[in-house]
UniProtKB/TrEMBL annotation:
InterPro entries: FBXL15_LRR, Leu-rich_rpt, Leu-rich_rpt_Cys-con_subtyp. This is F-box/LRR-repeat protein 15-like leucin rich repeat domain-containing protein. Residues 97-248, 328-478 form the F-box/LRR-repeat protein 15-like leucin rich repeat domain. It comes from Populus tomentosa (Chinese white poplar). It comes from the Eukaryota. One of its GO terms (cellular component) is SCF ubiquitin ligase complex. One of its GO terms (biological process) is SCF-dependent proteasomal ubiquitin-dependent protein catabolic process. It holds the Pfam family DUF7885. The lineage of its organism: Eukaryota, Viridiplantae, Streptophyta, Embryophyta, Tracheophyta.
Length: 667
């Protein structure tokens, strides 16, 4: 009799999935780089699939560029912002590896390449539609001429390319006829002529940034004739004035967004001449410009589509605010940040006419009191963002109204106000709250934070800077109820200990942690953060005297995403700094007054930090480190900032307010 033997199938279920289905699965892992890495390391098949799936690449080291591009042959978007030194030879590597697949490249933080490398890039990668060359202070007209060969280019950023002149931008205008967006911010050698050439040749432009250019009204007629122009930025263009604007005959009907911040030489008369006929205008920014008068407000009365206006830093007249309140259509966004002249009466009148406001910024409007908050919350129940930092005359009772009436709030900034625990209890009704700033709020305690932690589960950003009533108990309540926290500032809270950091280590998405001036935290707590918060990118531990090399060893092992750290006044020595140098993504480091740091240790650490781009050091180290070594590091793209600051003794918790011109409250 024959025995039936069972055959065992060792088939991998993934073998039955098409590549398209697996690509779809990988798309869902875009927000978690660790997940993609784990996927690719599972087996050779997954390694190959992930290599072919990846379309976006942000390499950490330029010297590995060739190998990396060989692994990922279908890159469309290349971001080189963490590679400070990119030479022409490396751009040649990119051009040979990517060819017609590459559609965008970001070189805004890279230096040392020239027109030769750019020419190689655009000739091989002829499908390029986006190039960011911002901060290219060494790029000249030859570089612009090379870019002009990118015939399919649609978006070009040249901010701070201060050597490019009208000649260079003329080449771009002739060669890149498909341009839809161009940024020329701080290109100080470009004049009216260059802008006119651009407007004449590039008829498809939708977005044009001319911030801080030395232009006048002469180029404006050409700009206004652009039939598709939607976004125009004229920030800091001091050559534009009323006399010139009054001569304009053209109008730009397609214009949707206009920014004239820091333009001091025009009034409502010139502004109206510029936007006359712009029936689609949606957003207007006039920050740090002319006074907000009744005449200015009336000149904007008939722009029915206007939904966002920003007057930051302007002198505001009560008559101007009242005139805005009489506009026929409600604004969605309004900013009076740092405006003097905003009063209860005028603001209360305004919000009654703009009941559809979603975002309101009244930062440093120091004259407003209870009545303003009462009117805002009564009229604008759909507010999602309210910023009212340093509104110091608003009583604590007013903050209760926020939670009672504006429960759709997502962003709230009440820094340096009188809000107390009752206010926080009320605000906890805002279940969609994602950002809450409570810095320098002396009346809040753990009890208030417990309400936030229990009901605001979507909170991602929390600022408790110098809120001295907060202890470990309050932090624990927040971390327990808000596991998706990404940013937290608990600097200068002297009751915070390692227990808070251990609680925060539960927040696996934490990216930014500021604990400077917390004397009771130590390496134990920071090590817990390193283990639990693998996505940590920014860390400030200045004046955390009990943090030493042990914490640096933990960071080196677990915090491979760390980009920026401030170690000043800590107990870290050469050993800790050398360990930290193993973090591949580390770019920015501040090292002032480390007693255990020696010149040799510092030099060794700097050499080991391959991707470092910015280092802030005490000036006393400068003569102790060989000039040749400093030159070598600078040649690889690092910038040194030398500070001659004396050792600072920590201020009294009330004395700091006097230092900044604020009156400390009586005990």
């Amino acid at each position: 009799m024959k025995s039936n033997k069972k055959t065992t199938c060792n088939c991998n279920p993934f073998d039955f999935l098409t590549e398209e289905i697996i690509f779809t699965i990988l798309d869902y892992l875009n927000d978690d780089p660790f997940a993609k890495k784990s996927f690719s390391l599972t087996c050779k098949a997954f390694y190959s699939i992930e290599s072919h799936h990846r379309k976006t690449l942000k390499p950490l080291r330029a010297e590995l560029l060739s190998r990396t591009l060989h692994r990922y042959p279908h890159i469309e978007h290349l971001d080189l912002t963490v590679c400070p030194r990119i030479e022409d030879s490396m751009l040649n590597v990119v051009s040979l590896a990517c060819k017609d697949a590459l559609r965008s490249i970001n070189l805004s933080r890279s230096r040392f390449f020239t027109n030769i490398g750019l020419s190689s890039l655009v000739s091989s990668c002829f499908n390029l539609v986006e190039i960011d060359l911002s901060n290219g202070v060494e790029l000249n007209d030859l570089a612009a001429a090379a870019i002009a060969e990118a015939k399919n280019l649609e978006k070009l950023w040249l901010a701070r390319c201060k050597l490019i002149t009208d000649l260079g931008i003329g080449c771009v205008a002739v060669g890149c006829r498909k341009l839809r967006l161009i940024c020329l911010k701080w290109c100080l050698k470009i004049s009216d002529l260059g802008v006119q050439l651009l407007a004449l040749k590039c008829k498809e432009i939708r977005s044009l940034d001319l911030s801080y250019l030395q232009i006048t009204e002469k180029c404006l007629p050409s700009i206004l004739q652009l039939q598709h122009l939607e976004d125009l930025v004229l920030e800091g263009c001091l050559g534009i004035n009323d006399d010139g604007l009054s001569t304009l005959q053209q109008s730009c009907k397609s214009l949707k967004t206009l920014n004239m911040s820091n333009c001091h030489n025009h009034s409502h008369v010139g502004l109206l001449s510029l936007i006359n006929g712009a029936e689609n205008l949606r957003e207007l920014t006039l920050a740090y410009g002319p006074s907000v008068t009744a005449d200015l407000a009336k000149s904007l009365h008939n722009f029915s589509g206007l939904h966002s206006v920003k007057f930051d830093g302007c002198l505001v007249k009560c008559s101007g605010i009242r005139a805005i309140g009489n506009w026929p259509n409600s604004l969605k966004e309004l900013s009076f940040s740092k405006c003097s002249g905003v009063t209860d009466d005028s603001l209360s009148f305004l919000v009654q006419g703009h009941k559809e406001l979603r975002k309101l910024d009244i930062t440093c409007c120091r004259m407003i009191m209870y009545d303003s908050v009462d009117s805002i919350t009564s009229s604008c129940c759909s507010l999602t963002s309210l910023r009212m930092e340093s509104c110091s005359l608003v009583p604590k009772e007013a903050f209760v109204l926020l939670g009672q009436r504006c429960q759709l709030m997502e962003e709230l900034d009440v820094t340096d106000t009188k809000i107390d625990d009752e206010g926080l209890k009320s605000i906890s009704r805002c279940s969609k709250l994602s950002s809450l700033k409570l810095g320098i709020c002396m009346n809040i305690t753990d009890n208030g934070l417990k309400h936030i932690g229990s009901r605001c589960s979507k909170l991602k950003e929390l600022d408790l800077y110098r809120s001295l009533g907060i202890t470990d108990e309050g932090i624990a309540a927040v971390t327990f109820g808000c596991p998706d926290l990404e940013v937290i500032n608990i600097a200068y809270n002297d009751k915070v200990t390692d227990a808070s950091l251990i609680s925060l280590s539960r927040c696996s998405r934490l990216r930014v942690l500021e604990i400077r001036g917390c004397p009771h935290v130590s390496s134990k707590g920071l090590s817990a953060i390193a283990v639990g918060c693998r996505q940590l990118m920014v860390l400030d531990i200045k004046k955390c005297f009990n943090i030493n090399d042990n914490a640096m060893l933990s960071l080196a092992q677990f915090s491979q995403n760390l980009k920026q750290i401030n170690l000043s006044y800590c107990s870290v020595t050469d050993v800790g700094l050398l360990a930290l140098a193993r973090v591949n993504r580390l770019q920015n480091i501040t090292v002032l007054h480390l007693g255990g740091l020696t010149p040799n240790g510092l030099a060794a650490a700097l050499l080991a930090c391959r991707g470092i781009t910015k280092v802030k050091l005490h000036a006393s180290f400068k003569p102790l480190i060989p000039k040749s070594l400093l030159g070598y590091i600078e040649a690889h793209g690092c910038v040194f900032h030398w500070r001659d600051k004396a050792f600072q003794v920590e201020m009294d918790t009330k004395g700091w307010k006097l230092h900044f011109g604020k009156s400390a409250e009586a005990p």
